[in-house]
Inverse folding.
């Protein structure tokens, strides 16, 4: 953390006049444990109104603690500030904290922290403000320093108490997991036993970097510690928002149509109102909400709605014909947003010995997280407060959007984060909480469970944008790549730009630009964002140049990476794992791709075959080698890369959202095909390169490797180039002629 | 409204639901057995897989009245005592779940396979499991966990009907 220190931040908060005058020491007595000072000012609205600590329910008190709660029985409850959407934050982050606190992992319990970014956030992209967004594979890397410091401060509080109790210098105390030791006197005390004499120092210092654990001495980080959430996810007890049931809870659905931006007009309101079980009809700008007493009614009545939809920006739009429009935009002299401009591409291109140009296309893809969007909201009878249960990648966004919809302060909205049945970028915008809050307001104070059907989730989805990418490259008389130009045309501005940089390749003249053509279709971050399409284009073109020169694709990249040893190490490792030099069995070929995503460098190699009758591509093996800095949980990192590759295979071979006259054509898994077990490769091998650098993001590294690796293997096998994602059987047959 | 008696996890349970309501919504929203998940509602994803008389059935595709009165329904909560079915132990051993949402359905589907075929081949596992979707892409670990469980002698002590 820069010059901003977490502790000072908290101390400033504590000293503000708004801090409730409730003694922390009294809390100790009511809980039988102790809420560490760090961040203890994170007080919920209902606490402020409490006059006496006796009125505080211990269940609420738990939420008063910031990072950790220590019980006299030794149990250490650590709060996870990030969403758990499958990526393993529920284990990785508490593990980092426990490492520095020197907690006994067997006595650790993990809970979600409150959604209060001022307390639980990590420094945002600007380094000044705090954010609490589980996006961009930033969780482990952004929280690593925060949680090491917080864990070390928790340890300091324990040491300080013991030093005072035993009247020994703090510097003579050491810790082992779960206990404090004074070697000189032979005394030791368990963390749980410290609770009885625990004293909170008035000042908790920032622990200097050099006093944190030497990574060589890590006992939890880098070890294969089983994931905290897996037992509950194997017996059905893990709770997702979808599973919440509250007393007197009502159910809601919303019909949103399949034309994004269209406004509804309900034609049979009186008939719907007269339907048995219908409690309320809520007309929203973008859909018609139905509140009923059972879920099945809400689903049935939704189908009975007679809605006339207005036209919208997307009316008349066809995704199929959009590429012709993109072609015109490419030819236009009107430039878009410049992303990269190093050296002078135009000059390099003029002076080149040889030039290359190719277009790459991709269709819209949908998140298809297994748990459709849903939220439960309850609004106070007077409308001045609300509570929401939701699986969100960005709790503060849900809080803010719900508050705005209700016309109240965000601080009056409490968000209870639940496990996410997949996030993949879809759940970092709290639109479902906004909807749920509006519906709950109409029937306050009854709680309302709003469920999106799968059809809603597909048709009112927010898709990874379609795009057309025009790449140009040039080489000098020695065959060295001297220039690369990359222009993307599509819908979605910054969503199109990620992954367009090539800083690990030694290409002196690079130019990249994004030209935006809005269609009125909802678009959003989708696992690895622009990396999927952009790396597909870049890595494909590089392979084309290598092929043209008769160069081996690995050796060709080795030359490009000559000034990037870490990137090169992943390339060498992957080539070794895949036995690149050994020809694959008859009818198969290998393809390679390299990319950087969220700081992690990865080379991937796949081995495929193609059925020339049906056009079906089969991925037999996948090898990957990554440099992701310090690996907090090695097995979990491997799981992320494995799963990302499998998801990538589905997205590359069969996932496709098409739009006709502005209307989304797909509606469920029968016409939106994600990878099935039969599509998984026979083997996926992952290697993690040893590093002492800060952890980097891995959750999105596997997925974007797949398109380029398959396209390059396909070219090696058939001599033909696949240039349009997804590589459906029809497109494969067309390319094969 | 229909008054139904369902035999779920060895217990007779009464439910008062509108005719035509899917078994999925009855067990989740009326009875609170929320380990069984809603994923698609049209039998395309397998997240809602339960056993009816030992056979794996997507509970979104059958009505509650269709399986009332005597048919034995088993959900993830009733698969084994304390969640210790050999498959559940194998799921933990192989660290299968990521987001976890589809995994109840995966385990129920796999349990039905192992009951009929204690030592399935890789191809048999893939064929049997292919209708259960996992967006996190945990398929290779699911495969491994099924193979681990198939090699486990404790499979014979499964508590399920």
């Amino acid at each position: 953390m820069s010059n901003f220190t977490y502790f000072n931040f908290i101390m400033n908060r504590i000293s503000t006049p708004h801090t409730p005058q409730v003694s922390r020491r009294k809390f100790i007595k009511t809980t039988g444990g102790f809420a560490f000072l760090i961040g203890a000012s994170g007080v919920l609205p209902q606490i402020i109104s409490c006059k006496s600590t006796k009125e505080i329910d211990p269940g609420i008190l738990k939420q008063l603690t910031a990072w950790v709660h220590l019980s006299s029985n030794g149990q250490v409850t650590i709060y996870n500030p990030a969403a758990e959407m499958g990526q393993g934050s529920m284990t990785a982050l508490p593990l980092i904290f426990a490492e520095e606190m020197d907690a006994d992992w067997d006595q650790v319990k993990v809970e979600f922290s409150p959604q209060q970014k001022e307390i639980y956030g990590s420094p945002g992209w600007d380094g000044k403000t705090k954010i609490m967004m589980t996006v961009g594979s930033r969780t482990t890397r952004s929280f690593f320093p925060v949680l090491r410091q917080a864990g070390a401060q928790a340890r300091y509080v324990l040491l300080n108490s013991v030093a005072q109790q035993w009247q020994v210098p703090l510097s003579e105390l050491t810790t082992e997991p779960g206990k404090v030791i004074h070697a000189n006197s032979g005394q030791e005390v368990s963390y749980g036993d410290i609770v009885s004499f625990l004293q909170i120092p008035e000042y908790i210092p920032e622990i200097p970097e050099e006093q944190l654990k030497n990574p060589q001495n890590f006992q939890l980080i880098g070890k294969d510690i089983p994931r905290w959430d897996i037992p509950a996810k194997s017996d059905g007890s893990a709770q997702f928002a979808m599973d919440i049931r509250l007393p007197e809870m009502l159910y809601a659905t919303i019909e949103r149509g399949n034309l994004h931006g269209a406004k509804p007009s309900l034609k049979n309101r009186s008939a719907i109102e007269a339907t048995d079980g219908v409690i309320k009809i809520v007309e929203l700008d973008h859909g018609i909400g139905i509140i009923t007493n059972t879920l099945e009614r809400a689903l049935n009545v939704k189908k009975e709605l007679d809605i006339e939809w207005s036209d919208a920006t997307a009316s008349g739009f066809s995704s199929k014909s959009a590429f012709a429009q993109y072609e015109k935009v490419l030819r236009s002299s009107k430039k878009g947003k410049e992303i990269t401009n190093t050296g002078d591409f135009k000059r390099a291109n003029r002076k080149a010995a040889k030039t290359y140009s190719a277009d790459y296309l991709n269709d819209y893809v949908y998140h298809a997280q297994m748990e459709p969007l849903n939220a439960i909201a309850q609004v106070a009878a007077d409308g001045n407060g609300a509570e929401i249960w939701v699986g969100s990648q960005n709790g503060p966004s849900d809080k803010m959007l719900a508050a705005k919809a209700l016309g109240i302060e965000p601080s009056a909205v409490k968000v209870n984060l639940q496990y996410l049945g997949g996030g993949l970028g879809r759940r970092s915008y709290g639109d479902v909480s906004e909807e749920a809050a509006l519906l709950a307001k109409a029937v306050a104070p009854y709680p309302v469970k709003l469920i999106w059907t799968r059809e809603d989730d597909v048709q009112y989805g927010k898709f990874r944008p379609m795009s057309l990418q025009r790449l140009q490259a040039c080489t000098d008389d020695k065959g060295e790549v001297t220039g690369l130009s990359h222009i993307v045309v599509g819908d979605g501005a910054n969503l199109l730009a990620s992954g367009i940089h090539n800083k690990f390749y030694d290409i002196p003249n690079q130019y990249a630009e994004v030209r935006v053509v809005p269609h009125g279709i909802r678009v959003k971050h989708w696992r690895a964002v622009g990396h999927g399409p952009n790396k597909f284009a870049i890595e494909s073109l590089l392979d084309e140049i290598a092929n043209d020169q008769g160069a081996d694709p690995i050796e060709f990249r080795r030359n490009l990476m000559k000034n990037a040893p870490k990137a090169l190490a992943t390339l060498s490792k992957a080539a070794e794992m895949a036995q690149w030099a050994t020809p694959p069995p008859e009818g198969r070929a290998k393809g390679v791709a390299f990319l950087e995503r969220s700081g992690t460098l990865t080379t991937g190699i796949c081995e495929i075959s193609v059925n020339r009758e049906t056009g079906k591509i089969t991925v037999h093996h996948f090898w990957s080698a990554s440099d992701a800095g310090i690996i907090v949980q090695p097995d979990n990192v491997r799981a992320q890369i494995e799963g990302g590759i499998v998801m990538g295979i589905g997205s590359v071979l069969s996932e496709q959202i098409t739009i006709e006259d502005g209307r989304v054509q797909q509606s469920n898994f029968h016409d939106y095909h994600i990878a099935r077990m039969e599509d998984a490769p026979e083997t996926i091998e992952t290697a993690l390169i040893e590093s002492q650098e800060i952890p980097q993001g891995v959750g999105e590294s596997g997925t974007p490797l797949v398109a380029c690796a398959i396209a390059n293997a396909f070219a090696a096998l058939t001599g033909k180039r696949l240039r349009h994602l997804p590589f459906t059987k029809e497109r494969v047959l067309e390319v094969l002629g | 409204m229909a008054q139904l008696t369902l035999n779920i996890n060895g217990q007779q349970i009464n439910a008062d639901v509108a005719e035509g309501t899917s078994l999925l919504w009855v067990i989740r929203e009326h009875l609170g057995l929320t380990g069984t998940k809603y994923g698609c509602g049209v039998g395309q994803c397998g997240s809602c897989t339960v056993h009816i008389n030992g056979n794996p059935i997507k509970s979104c595709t059958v009505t509650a009245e269709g399986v009332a009165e005597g048919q034995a329904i088993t959900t993830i909560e009733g698969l084994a005592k304390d969640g210790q079915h050999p498959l559940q132990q194998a799921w933990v051993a192989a660290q299968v779940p990521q987001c976890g949402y589809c995994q109840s359905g995966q385990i129920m589907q796999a349990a039905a396979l192992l009951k009929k075929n204690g030592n399935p081949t890789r191809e048999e596992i893939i064929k049997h499991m292919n209708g259960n979707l996992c967006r996190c892409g945990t398929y290779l670990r699911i495969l491994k966990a099924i193979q681990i469980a198939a090699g486990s002698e404790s499979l014979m002590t499964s508590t399920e009907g």
